[in-house]
Write the structure tokens for this entry.
Amino acid sequence: MIQFNNITKIYNGVPVIRDFTARIDKGEFVFISGPSGSGKSTLLKLLFCSERPDNGQILFQDEDLSAIRRSRIPYIRRTIGFVFQDSMLLTYRTVFENIALALRVTGFPKGEMDHRVQETLRLVGMGDKVYTLPSALSGGEQQKVAIARAIVNDPLVLVADEPAGNLDIDSAWEVFQILEKINRTGTTIVIATHNYELVRRMQKRVISIKN
């Protein structure tokens, strides 16, 4: 499903990633692990088309992301859910409105929106917080809502950049268990993290970035 072929990315003359090659198959749950500054987030940005490689090729569903037109990028992103370290919820909108907004921008039928949002919230264990404002939620709850927003469009891949980086260990473990549940529905999961303890406990495939 995802193939990185000899990827190099350079910032200010310094190669952050050099000759990186890896394959991620459909339905896998994969961690990209490494210390801060090793290029984990950059790889996710390349996959999400917010950055382009300086050399190499990225294939997603047999389409070359390193050579696509800008007009094609929004359509690619509809198949990739993205969860940030900071939940990035709209603080003045309810949980429902935050998630429904992700559906509206893709032209999802309004009549089906309520059901889809509530089903997604139940999946992440937040079905009782539909009309709550983010400010009334804990950090872990906010991140669950962010996950719901990322998967409400039923993406092929869910990409998460340090999704538990700001959480205590118990909340982080709960978030990772939700991601595993989503993976069991068939969604490919790719997580960048330097939390080696959680990676060890999850016992999933790890792509390590070193040097």
Observations:
- The chain has a mean pLDDT of 93.
- Strands lie at 2-11, 14-24, 29-33, 55-60, 63-64, 80-83, 157-161, 188-193, 205-208.
- The longest strand covers residues 14-24.
- The CA atoms of residues 106 and 149 lie 13 Å apart.
